[in-house]
Design brief:
The chain is built from 1 helix and 23 strands. The chain is mainly β. Strands 13, 14, 16, 19, 20, 21 and 23 form a 7-stranded antiparallel beta sheet that branches. The two termini are 101 Å apart. Among the domains are: 123 residues, no CATH class; 61 residues, no CATH class; 145 residues, Jelly Rolls.
């Protein structure tokens, strides 16, 4: 609590009262304008006045009273305590009473007590301000308060100190403002299982200046991220300086059940391009292309399934052999509905990009059976590629097997040569045509049937296979 001081002021001598006062008055006025010579009071401040009625032969006051004044407004004094400093309250005549502002023994005693209380810790200082350097020989206890500064740069300790202990029992230490920078020029040692944590969803551990980062020099296990999350490495991952080759490995472990999945993503410019993954306890490994939206290579106990072909270098950089693979096979039986409309028996949509270079080809093979129940109107079976009818087989009052097989050979992005065989029974019809089907996108290979007599006819398809050839046809 702040000390209530008794104030003094130079030149406050031989002042006059405005009127006579009685020995019991606790408020009165000074002569007009005399109040300006007295101190200005605030809060619990006071000052002492000596009211002198007479002097001895040496000019010293012989009849006087000392009073304490607690409030002043212009020339009006109030909150007066009479008979101070061992004097007695008495009446005073305005015309013959001199009023002096005095420093009494109590003023000095109060000052001595205040300083003593600061020195022995009895008094708690609420604010300490110094413009120069200060020295504290013992410990500085700041109980529940803060050390603050008005400067923008503040050095807490000088360069002599070699060990700094902060918050020996603290569970939380806050430094800096949110969004600011906390610079640490020497090593940061987190002992006793401590951790660096943040409440933010994005956290940058080190800035762009650092070129070498050493993590866990003696660590046998380093955990990063949460299960099911993503750990991104934007630069090269080099597994080196390990004697045993088996130790230089990327190991992905998941639970041995049907639903667990381990994944290894490859990205370009922030977008996923390739994915190597394994699903559950199935004994295979798959490579998935985000561009094609499908698995392109599957490694399993049954062999290697390459959806877009295998390119083998045969010598020079331009000497390559590309081997195609089965894109689609369907050996189930499909029966045409019992109506006279044109209905699709089997259809397969070829994914975009399968024929992305001239000379590549798609081989097709379709087969089935037709039974036309009456003469006069023929039942038809059509081969369609990209919605375009390539060839048509007609059957009138006959039961026969049918078959389409051939190749679509790319000659341009929207041009191709189509060679085919169209079989009715054991008789083939050989065909050759050019088309204008756009091959860069998806396109369908389909067989349709139109029955001439509805329920009296039967048309089935028992086979559809597409085989992709990625180079020489």
């Amino acid at each position: 609590m702040a000390t209530a001081w008794n104030l003094v002021k130079n030149g406050a001598w031989y002042l006059r009262l405005n009127a006579n006062i009685a020995d019991s008055d606790t408020s009165f006025s000074m002569a007009s304008g005399e109040g300006a010579a007295l101190p200005t009071l605030s809060g619990s401040d006071t000052f002492y006045l000596q009211l002198v009625d007479s002097y001895d032969t040496n000019g010293q006051p012989s009849s006087y009273e000392i009073i304490k004044v607690g409030a002043i407004s212009t020339d009006a004094l109030s909150s007066i305590t009479r008979a101070q400093g061992g004097t007695s309250a008495s009446a005073h005549i305005a015309a013959s009473c001199d009023v002096h502002l005095v420093l009494v023994a109590g003023n000095v005693t109060e000052l001595q007590d205040a300083v003593t209380n600061i020195e022995d810790g009895t008094t708690t200082l609420t604010t300490v301000t110094t413009s120069g350097a200060g020295t504290i020989g013992g410990a500085l206890a700041v109980n529940g308060a803060a050390i603050t500064t008005d400067d923008t740069t503040f050095a807490l300790l000088n360069t002599t100190v070699t060990t700094i202990n902060i918050g020996g029992a603290a569970t939380t230490i806050n430094a800096g403002v949110a969004g600011g920078t906390f610079n640490m020029l020497s090593n940061l040692n987190l002992g006793n299982g401590a951790a660096i944590t943040t409440d933010d969803t994005t956290f940058a551990l080190l800035n762009t200046t650092v070129t070498t980062i050493n993590i866990g020099g003696a660590a046998t296990t380093i955990n990063a991220g949460v299960a099911g999350g993503t750990f991104n490495i934007l630069s090269k991952l080099n597994l080196a300086s390990v004697a045993a080759a088996a130790a230089r490995a990327i190991s992905i472990s998941v639970a041995n059940d049907a639903s667990s999945q381990s994944q290894l993503h490859f990205q370009t410019a922030g977008a996923n391009k390739w994915l190597i993954y394994k699903v559950g306890n199935v004994d295979n490994l798959r490579i998935y292309s985000y561009t094609n939206g499908a698995d392109v290579i599957t490694f399993g106990t049954g062999g290697v399934d390459i959806a877009k072909g295998l390119t083998v270098k045969a010598g020079g950089a331009a000497d390559t052999l590309t081997v195609g693979g089965a894109d689609y096979s369907d050996g189930t039986t499909t029966t045409c509905p019992s109506d006279t409309a044109e209905n699709t028996l089997k259809s397969r949509t070829v994914p975009a990009g399968m024929l992305d270079a001239n000379g590549q080809a798609l081989e097709f093979d379709c087969a089935g059976e037709v039974s036309d129940g009456a003469a006069g109107v023929a039942t038809t079976v059509k081969l369609k590629i990209g919605g375009v009818t390539i060839t048509t087989l007609s059957f009138d009052d006959v039961t026969s097997r049918w078959r389409f097989r051939g190749k679509v050979i790319r000659t341009g992005a929207a041009t191709q040569t189509i060679v085919y065989e169209a079989w009715t029974g054991s008789t083939p019809e050989l065909g050759h045509t050019t088309g204008a089907i756009t091959l860069t996108g998806t396109f369908a290979v389909a067989v349709t049937a139109t029955k001439s007599h509805g329920s009296n006819d039967t048309v089935t398809q028992t086979w559809l296979q597409l085989i992709l050839h990625r180079s020489n046809t």
